[in-house]
Amino acid sequence: MIKRFLLSNTFLFLALLVYGQTDPVRESTYHFTIKERELTGPGADTLKAYISKSQFFLLGEEHDMTELQMLTADLMPFLKSSGYRHFALEIGSLAAERLSSIYRKKESLMKFNSRYYKHFNSGPFGFFDGKEEEVFLNAALDNNFKLWGIDYESHGAPLYILDELYAGSQAKPILKNTYQKAAQYIIDEYAKDLITIKYPIYSKMLHSAELAAFFQAVPANRSNQKLMEELILSWKIRDEERNNKWYARVENMKKSFIRQYKDEAKKKELPKVFIKLGAVHTARGTSSSGFPEVGNTIYELANYSNTQAFSIISFARYRKDEQGNISDLLEPEDEALLKYTNKDSWSLINLKQLNEARLEGKINLSKEVIGYIQKYDMMLIPPATTRMQPNFIR
């Protein structure tokens, strides 16, 4: 009888011990869903709490995820109510101005994209040739966000910029011949780039007599000067990239962000900025590009201002094809971290919380997970997501 009593109590103790053990990964993983454009669930509460108390919200993304674009749109009213007024994007400053103009004038973005896409196999803005991107763009502008283009102009931008230079000139008859020659030169050379490996397209643009003649003939004013300078700068940076030199782009993004931030800081102290870029650009410290990118600059700015920069990395675990079939893209090195994510809900992993558990000796983490922790605050995994629908007609 006594032996049975002791044995049962031993099993009870072991059960309590096992029950009392916790999994820090489970405790750091929060879920939420979106219903009627409202985020609901513990993950939504956590996400919103961090966004609201930060000056900078950085969303580092894997591109071409429908679910993330729609989430971005759904977050816009909350971002506005939390004091955010500026939206930094992976596009050029000219693209930001033109996209804002298309919205204000109620023009068709699909029609604009389609006019130029065929010549470059790329939209004129680099992004926003997906329908879901236009949804979050419109949501941002509906909520009175100011767009910041902090990158170079798109590969597909030259013709629309030439068209703007020509349309804005009061000397159209005089310019017509040089404009037509310059435009045809661009069309012909970019056609060669589409079929020739490593064609020196940007060098061709920079040394074109046809383009030089047109730029020289364009009336000299501030607007025209900016259009030409940004296009030429973009060609120079892209030419560097063609030669595997990334620093020029990194440096341009930093300078562009700081310039626009300073302009807004003159009007309002500590302006709040939402930043949506590829994850390589939003990392703390040295990014996978080999350089401290604009994300690190923003963290340093927040530290200097005694505010907070909140950073998320988002990528797809589950991809859904056009037939509705779902593929699990889980990488072996991410398996331990993503074991509580699922295809039916958003999963938010608090990397800071997980790191605290590591420092307390509650869990051992791989070097890959520690790498995420060093560069980002949280990880956001969408439910099964499709690729975006094209916002252009070929």
TrEMBL record:
SUPFAM superfamilies: EreA/ChaN-like. It comes from the Bacteria. This is Erythromycin esterase homolog.
